[in-house]
Amino acid sequence: MTSYTDKGPKPEGGRFLSFDHVTFWVGNAKQAASYYCTRLGFEPFMYRGLETGSRNVASHVVKQNKIIYVFQSMLEPDKPADMASHLTKHGDGVKDVAFEVEDLDAIVKIAKERGAKVVKDIWEESDEQGTVRMASVQTYGDTTHTLIDRSKYTGPFLPNYRPAQTNDPLVTLLPSTGLLHIDHIVGNQPDLGMNDTVHWYEKNLMFHRFWSVDDKQLSTEFSALRSIVVTNFEETIKMPINEPAPGKRKSQIQEYVDYYGGAGVQHIAMRTNNIIESISNLRARGQQFLEIPATYYRTLRENLKNAKIKVTEDLDVLQKLHILVDYDDEGYLLQIFTKNMQDRPTLFLEVIQRHNHQGFGAGNFKSLFEAIEADQAERGNL
């Protein structure tokens, strides 16, 4: 892997603060939101639909600590047309990754000057709690980024949403999962699409390269990938960009591109401070994860004997829960990946805990590939 220390010039104006929320376009927003609450420990947060005056789209918003997911569905056949075509082509998936920003005008001005496609220029939405200013730009595939300035808004989410009904007894009966905030969001590209996408972030949003690996470093017998992580100047938003590399069989990146119909968000990584407790409780809720072979943990135990760092968690428990470990001389991370979150083999989720380690699990990619390939073989897609 390669780490990058050159941030490039500091943007003259504007600042990216953090991930704000992620919007999914799905066939049934009510059920998707309920699934994330039941299986993943989110809680109903906000709602917008027919009852609030939204005639075309229903929006169910769920929240867990700083993670906010918005599930949206059409209310009429084939309206809105762009949502209808998106669902037909991609199935359920991420439409928009929103960032909270400061000085929206400066960011949009720079993006326009550098040739970014502005899907919707700066607009305002208001209610009795103030005004939110927003703009949307096109990134890879059909995915967009909404840039949000909340500096003049005191409400809990966005204008014209109302609090969701929270009388579901499962919210209090099931164990808390302790997911804190979004760590990173990964975008898959078709073969040879990665560099152009990375350049788009560097040019239009003034992000810089943070970390990368190539197919010489990461491959199995059947598949390989290349990945470059881009981030904002303050390094509070991490966006890994992947592409497949040629292999003997269809790689899991290519499988995603084929079933999604092009580039899109492959997975969302969510941070926890106690992954053992989080995964134990997620499993108790019925969430399914990839299974890691026992050989991985035998090799890990041998390698850790000579490592400069010490993993404080019980390796027997990590193995039982199928949690992966990656490390260097300074620290380590723990991570695990869900099975696909819908019938199409496209979007999945990650849970990650960091111990002074800012990588993305390069040491685990081979084992992760092999676990995904086992699932691919079962689907008949390897």
Automatic annotation (TrEMBL):
It is a peripheral membrane protein. One of its GO terms (molecular function) is 4-hydroxyphenylpyruvate dioxygenase activity. One of its GO terms (biological process) is L-phenylalanine catabolic process. It catalyses: 3-(4-hydroxyphenyl)pyruvate + O2 = homogentisate + CO2. Its cofactor is Fe cation. It holds the Pfam family Glyoxalase_4. GO terms for cellular component: endoplasmic reticulum membrane; Golgi membrane. Keywords: Cytoplasm, Dioxygenase, Endoplasmic reticulum, Golgi apparatus, Iron, Membrane, Metal-binding, Oxidoreductase, Phenylalanine catabolism, Repeat, Tyrosine catabolism. Fe cation binds at residues 184, 267, 350. Pathway: Amino-acid degradation; L-phenylalanine degradation; acetoacetate and fumarate from L-phenylalanine: step 3/6. Its main location: cytoplasm. The keyword Repeat applies. The keyword Membrane applies. Signal peptide: none annotated. Binds 1 Fe cation per subunit. It comes from the Eukaryota. InterPro entries: 4OHPhenylPyrv_dOase, 4OHPhenylPyrv_dOase_C, 4OHPhenylPyrv_dOase_N, Glyas_Bleomycin-R_OHBP_Dase, Glyas_Fos-R_dOase_dom, VOC_core. It is found in: Cytoplasm; Endoplasmic reticulum membrane; Golgi apparatus membrane. NCBIfam families: 4HPPD. Belongs to the 4HPPD family. Catalyzes the conversion of 4-hydroxyphenylpyruvic acid to homogentisic acid, one of the steps in tyrosine catabolism. Homodimer. This is 4-hydroxyphenylpyruvate dioxygenase. It comes from Biomphalaria glabrata.
